[in-house]
């Protein structure tokens, strides 16, 4: 709550903020009857000597702007590498059976389980510092399948092949 004295001080500050610029304009007009731009431009400025620029001859400009002769490249500027013979004894054929990329199982994500909490809307797990509920995605291929507050465990399930991984929360110290 403001006291009458602080209210008066506030009004004085506002009044001063409005009047000071106006007083400055009045004082400036009294000192210099001419506008500031005229006063500044009337000061004696020595003339600047400009350097003389020599332009090239018109014939030289015409030669420069004419279309240059273009020579097509007929040979490669790079050295050609010798081709390997078809039946080279140094080349061996190797056959390796690799599973397709989409069939390779993804490893479970590396997560840090910090807490498991019961709530009226279901259980929550604090994984990597974020609250997660069953059904939340932990990575592209893994989801949080279940939270067991009694056993202090969470179950992760792979979307691709249904594998499950159970992570147990360390007991409190």
Summarize this structure briefly.
The chain is of the alpha+beta class. The protein contains 3 helices and 6 strands. Among the domains are: 1-35; 109-168, no CATH class.
Structure, explained:
The protein is of the alpha+beta class and 173 residues long. Among the domains are: 1-35; 109-168, no CATH class. The protein has three helices and six strands, in the order H-H-H-E-E-E-E-E-E. The chain has helices at residues 4-31, 36-41, 58-65, and strands at 113-117, 124-127, 130-132, 142-148, 153-158, 164-168. It has a three-stranded antiparallel β-sheet, with no helix packed on it. Strands 4-5-6 form a three-stranded antiparallel β-sheet, with no helix packed on it. The longest helix has 28 residues, at 4-31. The protein is flat, with a radius of gyration of 43 Å. The relative contact order is 0.07. The model has no long low-confidence stretch (mean pLDDT 76).
The largest sheet has its strands arranged as 1-2-3
**Strand percentage, roughly?**
15-25%
Shape descriptor reads: flat
Mean pLDDT: 76
Q: How many β strands by DSSP? A: 6
* Spatial extent as radius of gyration: 43 Å
From N to C, what is the helix and strand string?
HHHEEEEEE
Give the structural class: alpha+beta
Helical residue percent band = 10-25%
The number of distinct helices, counting runs of at least 4 residues, comes to 3
């Amino acid at each position: 709550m403001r006291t009458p004295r602080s209210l008066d001080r506030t009004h004085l500050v506002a009044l001063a903020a409005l009047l000071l610029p106006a007083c400055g304009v009045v004082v400036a007009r009294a000192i210099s009857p001419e506008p500031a731009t005229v006063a500044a431009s009337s000061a004696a400025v020595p003339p600047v000597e400009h350097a003389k620029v020599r332009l090239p001859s018109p014939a030289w400009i015409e030669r420069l702007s004419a279309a240059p002769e273009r020579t097509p490249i007929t040979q490669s500027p790079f050295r050609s590498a010798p081709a390997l013979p078809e039946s080279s004894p140094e080349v061996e054929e190797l056959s390796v059976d690799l599973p397709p990329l989409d069939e390779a199982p993804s490893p479970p994500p590396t997560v840090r389980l910090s807490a498991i909490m019961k709530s009226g809307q279901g259980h929550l797990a604090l994984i990597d510092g974020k609250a997660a509920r069953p059904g939340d995605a932990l990575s592209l291929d893994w989801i949080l399948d279940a939270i067991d507050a009694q056993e202090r465990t969470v179950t992760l399930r792979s979307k691709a092949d249904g594998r499950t991984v159970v992570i147990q929360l360390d007991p409190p110290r």
